[in-house]
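Review form for a predicted model. The reviewer records the input and the model, then writes brief findings.
Reviewer: anonymous (R2)
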Amino acid sequence: MRIPRLSFLIAAAMLAVFVLNFGSEHLRPVFGSIYYARKLSKPTRGSSNARRAVRGHFGTTDDELLNDGSAPNSKAAGGIMPNSLLSKSLHLLSGGKYEDVEGVEAVWQAPPTGVLRRAVVFIAHGCNHGAIDWWPPSPSCPQCIGLPEELNVTLHCLLRGYAVVAVSSAARRGSRCWQSVFGGGSEPWDYSQGSSPVDWMRVRRVLDVVLPREGLSSLPLFALGASSGGAFVLGLPLVMPGRFSGLGVQIMGAPLGLLQRYRMMNQSAPWPPTLFVHMPRDTNMARLVAENIRELQEGGVRTREILVQPQPLTPLYLTQRCAPEVDEHTSRELYDILKAADYLDARGYLRFNPRSQHAGGWRGILKEAGLAGLERLRLQPDASPIAEELNLLYAGHELCSETTTDMLEWFEGAVVS
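Model under review:
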């Protein structure tokens, strides 16, 4: 019977979101898993020509997760050396410029001098985040807080010749989610702050001001969003048809019937090529993405799928990703503490969701063990580099920067063809 089956899917989606996010003080909303799962009728695998790739380690999914193979640290994180491309290149991100564009918070940066300008990428953050996460503090952006995955995305975009424009959602209190074009995705507006804004109009205004002023209007424009920002990005073609040359969507899907809705609006521009990056550990999200890919491909839209699997923590990983806040000594000591506490398995994989408070949570373990220099580390949820990286290693629901080059290469190929 259909009704019981739908009820079961909704319950399963809600349980998955709770388990994957339990322990966050804000319980980061993953409304796509909850809101859209009830629209699914049965799981599908999507079309076979949606190129699937696995990121996070050298081995394939079968080698790593089924055959108990080793999982050396990725080259993107630094391999076996304490210094990574990110830790050695942070100075290149000092050019992030903070702006209030007619009441809209934005941070942007053009590619370094001498790098050919290829395109522009608009970035939409996830819930409990903002545009200031994508650059480190600097004289031109003293408000910036610089989280590692966001920094790494920005760095790889700039080095490849992409100007980066990040915009904050209107909701700067509470969840800070985006107002989805599909409805929902943010808490009720606080009218003490003024009349309710429309997020997509705010983004359009920033692009209309910054791009022509900086001589970037003639370049292809792409969009990247994660979680709530991913849902927001998937809605942009409906309200700005023909403006974006490609979409990158991380850990999120769209309501079923997306392309049908777009074409019912009599949009003459084709739907842009769309790349999905998600974590199969969230099975409900994986099913939703499969449905999205199937629908888009049946409608003649180019798609690609990249899977992000769990990765092991290594002694050097956190300094490779979180330097200079986490130095080599702290990274090694932190690893030893978590290993001794049985928080990691024999291969270094996290045994527990880092958002949970199992055994007091990883923060409690570090405090009890007396990690040297703990007081100088940012540990608060959604503002902690260590928390973000542990979430990524667990691969339940987190932004992933290791797919950035794949995404940009695919965008470029899609535009040329």
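Findings: Residues 1-51, 55-74 have pLDDT under 50 and may be disordered.
Further findings: The longest helix spans residues 2-21.
Recommendation: see findings above.
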